[in-house]
Amino acid sequence: MPTRAKPHYPALAKELHAALGRDFQDADVFKLSHHASKHGINLELLERVDAPYTLISASDGHGRYKFPHRLAMEAAREARQPTTSKPTEPAPDYELGIHLTGARLGGNGRSALGTIAVLVPRAAGSPIRMFRLMDDLAKNIDLAAAREL
Question: Domain spans of the chain?
Fold first, then answer.
């Protein structure tokens, strides 16, 4: 009985990629689902999408459901700065491209950074612009107070 040669999978994967065209899991901005619930995301998806900006619509974990969940936040951090390669000091979330709507300046509750606005240009190669609107839940948004990151 003749033996069949095994296909060379990396070459096959390249051919499939070329035939299928655009990678629809490639993104510039990724918003974690359901306020970063531990059930809504996993490390493999975050690594696969590999977006430079990860947005989370959640407060600081003090609400009824404690969003964002610690497991979701750790997955987002691990996808941006793997801890298995070598021991390093973890970078702050904003340096990793992880942004929470409930974040505050100084980390001790002084001033709310508030709503996140992201402008994604249509032209390829144009930079993404991200703004923090510096609003608080109890106040109206003042666009003059917005800060570009």
Answer: 29-148
- ∠ CA 108-64-39 to the nearest 5 degrees? 100
Q: How far is CA 84 from CA 87, 88, 144, in A?
A: 7, 10, 43
Per-residue pLDDT of 95-114, as tens digits, reads 999 988 877 776 555 677 88
Is there a contact between 24 and 45 (Cβ–Cβ < 8 Å)? no
The tokens describing 83, both together, are: 């801890």
CB neighbours of residue 31 within 10 Å: 15
DSSP code for 33: S
The two three-digit tokens of residue 34, written as one number: 């359901």
Name the strand (E) or helix (H) holding 19.
helix 9-20
